[in-house]
Write a structure and sequence with these properties.
0% strand
């Protein structure tokens, strides 16, 4: 195996491991996150971000999420420090 092929194999394994770790870290389903992102996208077109998670928490309560604090903490860990940053910084991480 060439060095180039070996490096590609290592990169592929690292990407797969990162994806698996991301998936296992999710505090709720991908479908619920997609719903959250869609809701925030719509809501933030009508009102401004209050630099907090007001809209996120409202949506999580609406869909009956029991671990809202864990979800908000997870979003903050992923650079979603407020509702608009959830869209700007976290949604893209689900594109893989």
């Amino acid at each position: 195996m060439t060095d180039k092929a070996r490096r590609k194999q290592i990169r592929d394994r690292l990407r797969l491991k990162a994806k698996e770790e991301f998936e296992s870290s999710l505090p709720m389903t991908r479908e619920k996150f997609k719903g959250l992102f869609d809701y925030l996208d719509s809501a933030l077109q009508k009102e401004k971000c209050n630099d907090d998670h007001t809209l996120t928490i409202w949506f999580l309560n609406l869909i009956g999420v029991q671990n809202e604090g864990e979800v908000v903490g997870w979003l903050i860990d992923k650079n979603g420090y407020c509702d608009c940053e959830v869209l700007a910084n976290v949604e893209d991480q689900f594109e893989n």
